[in-house]
């Protein structure tokens, strides 16, 4: 079975392929011949944005498509990230991590969570299903680790002393917000 992920992000492809396993061939937008420009994410929720991306890519490619909208929610910075996480400042992941750490300077309460909403869209039937996952933790005092992407170097999951970027993909992919949502998707697809 082939499934398209509505992204150009190789990190997400690797993570999703590892979680879904070898029975499903995972493609990203760079792997298909149809040009699929990025749609504008105008939704006010993770689900709305994921559905926008899944419908757009699925209708243009005619492939069963999944899209996710994920975000980091930091309790001390309400409304700063969330559905706007990917647009939290210009530059690289390292630039956004540095911006977040500056914003958290002097803040003792560092509770945070990653949220992932995955939408599975079938362009043939025009139907979709939604799968949610969360990973609770807190923001580290400094950036640590090299594995992963996004805010992984500054996020420490509950029950661990290392950041996601220090834990490595094998551990992260068993506890992450996206892993939890993808496990729900996987169980749905097996049925």
What does this protein look like?
- The protein has a 6-stranded mixed sheet.
- Helix 1 links the parallel strand 1 (2-5) and strand 2.
- It is globular.
- With 191 residues, it is an alpha/beta fold.
- It has a single domain (2-190), classed as Maf protein, CATH 3.90.950.
- 33% of the residues lie in helices and 24% in strands.
- It has helices at residues 10-20, 46-61, 93-103, 164-167, 169-175, 177-190; strands at residues 2-5, 25-28, 65-74, 111-122, 127-139, 155-157.
Entry summary:
Helices cover 33% and strands 24% of the residues. The protein has helices at residues 10-20, 46-61, 93-103, 164-167, 169-175, 177-190; strands at 2-5, 25-28, 65-74, 111-122, 127-139, 155-157.
